[in-house]
């Protein structure tokens, strides 16, 4: 009994659902239509604003070019066109279209002189020329007896000037402005052609097509030039950042090595202060307390130094636990370079032994400078004969280093010595600054290279690395 009653009940429900679906579909269609209208109005408003918003600052075309003659080209072309088109346009208006001499001259002046303004303010010049061309079309329409064999609505002279103006616009204004200018040009020309179809001979279509080609090609070239200029600027910035990062990395490495040296001295002070009461008998109580205070202060400083070293060490440098090298490790460094295929000789003057013990910072800097110089030889002058000379100044106040290599004789190979910083001359400069020394580098006439350094034999606290 219940089955028959379900049919009538389902009928109104289905109708209600169908009505709701149709209503929602209509609402969605209406919303989409309104969205399209809003988008169209928004784009139209943006194009309209572009026509009245010129680019700033009003710098001349090609103003950023390094070539002086290229910066003057826009002015020269604008002046030449103005000089040619002004009398030509006035003559054509007067003889071919029957416009009075004074009116023809005035129209020609308004049509051509804005070309001079186009070098710095092409959008303002375009407005003047467009309005003057429209006025000229109506003036010619009222004065000429017949236009069957005449160019109309745009005359030949104004077409040439107008194309130059579009070129100046494309080289300066953004893409949206160019689209708006092209659309207004086409709208004005086609409106005149449609209003007077028996008078128009198609010059409006010609200008519309040629104008689009000029705007498209010149705009694309300008955007390509802008992209290349931005890329060059970015590469310059990246190179500067890379150089700065290299400098910071080298300074961090130097600071890490120098802190290793200082930490070693602090350890020695701690041991000596702690063992003094046992090594020296009969010390007064005050002296023992003083040594105890020195040891405690040294231990505290050493703990702080180790924390600082933990900050300076990166994940890649956790394994740097070996003692810092010096002059005694120089023969091993030269041997590694010889194994890399570089015939290298090492000469250490006898008087260098009289300078021992060298300040650790000086010995470390000497080793790193020679290491970087030899690494550069392996990278850039494979197979070149190399000479390393270490000597002392005449007054025994400085250590001198000289690394000289000849021209390369083979293709680059990977160096066997991989413990260098890899920062080349930057690292050498920082090492020399650390001890207040001097560095002289440069190519040789035979194609080789020379690295010379002078490192004063002073303690760290007496050196001003700045």
From TrEMBL:
It holds the Pfam family HATPase_c. The chain crosses the membrane at residues 73-93, 99-119, 126-145, 151-171, 178-196, 202-221. It catalyses: ATP + protein L-histidine = ADP + protein N-phospho-L-histidine. Keywords: ATP-binding, Kinase, Membrane, Nucleotide-binding, Phosphoprotein, Transferase, Transmembrane, Transmembrane helix, Two-component regulatory system. Residues 365-457 form the Histidine kinase/HSP90-like ATPase domain. It comes from the Bacteria. This is histidine kinase. It comes from Streptomyces niphimycinicus.
């Amino acid at each position: 009994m219940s089955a028959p009653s379900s049919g009538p009940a389902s009928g109104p429900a289905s109708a209600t659902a169908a009505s709701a679906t149709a209503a929602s579909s209509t609402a969605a269609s209406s919303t989409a239509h309104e969205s399209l209208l809003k988008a169209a109005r928004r784009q139209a408003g943006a194009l309209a604003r572009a026509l009245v918003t010129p680019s700033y600052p009003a710098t001349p075309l090609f103003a950023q070019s390094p070539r002086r003659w290229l910066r003057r080209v826009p002015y020269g072309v604008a002046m030449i066109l103005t000089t040619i088109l002004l009398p030509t346009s006035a003559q054509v208006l007067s003889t071919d279209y029957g416009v009075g001499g004074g009116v023809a001259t005035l129209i020609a002046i308004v049509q051509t002189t804005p070309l001079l303004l186009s070098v710095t303010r092409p959008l303002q010049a375009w407005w003047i020329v467009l309005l003057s061309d429209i006025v000229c079309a109506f003036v010619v329409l009222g004065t000429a007896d017949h236009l069957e064999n005449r160019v109309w609505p745009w005359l030949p002279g104004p077409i040439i000037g107008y194309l130059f103006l579009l070129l100046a616009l494309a080289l300066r204004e953004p893409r949206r402005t160019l689209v708006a200018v092209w659309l207004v040009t086409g709208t004005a020309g086609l409106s005149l052609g449609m209003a007077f179809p028996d008078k128009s001979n198609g010059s409006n279509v010609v200008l519309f097509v040629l104008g689009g080609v000029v705007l498209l090609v010149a705009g694309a070239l300008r955007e390509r030039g802008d992209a290349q200029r931005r890329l060059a600027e970015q590469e310059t910035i990246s190179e500067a950042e890379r150089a700065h990062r290299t400098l910071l990395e080298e300074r961090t490495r130097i600071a890490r090595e120098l802190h290793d040296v200082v930490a070693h001295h602090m350890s020695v002070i701690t041991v000596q202060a702690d063992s003094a009461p046992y090594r020296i008998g009969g010390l007064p109580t005050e002296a023992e307390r003083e040594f105890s205070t020195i040891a405690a202060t040294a231990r505290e400083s050493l703990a702080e130094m180790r924390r600082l070293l933990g900050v300076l060490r990166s994940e890649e440098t956790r394994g740097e636990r070996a003692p810092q090298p010096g002059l005694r490790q120089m023969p091993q460094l030269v041997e590694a370079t010889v194994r890399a295929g570089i015939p290298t000789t090492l000469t250490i003057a006898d008087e260098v032994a009289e300078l021992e013990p060298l300040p650790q910072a000086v010995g470390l800097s000497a080793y790193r400078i020679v290491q970087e110089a030899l690494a550069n030889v392996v990278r850039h002058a494979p197979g070149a004969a190399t000479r390393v000379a270490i000597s002392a100044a005449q007054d025994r106040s400085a250590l001198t280093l000289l690394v000289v290599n000849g021209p390369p004789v083979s293709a680059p190979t990977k160096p066997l010595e991989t413990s260098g910083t890899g920062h080349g001359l930057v690292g050498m400069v920082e090492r020399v600054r650390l001890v207040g020394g001097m560095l002289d580098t440069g190519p040789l006439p035979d194609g080789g290279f020379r690295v010379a350094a002078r490192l004063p034999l002073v303690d760290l606290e007496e050196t001003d690395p700045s």
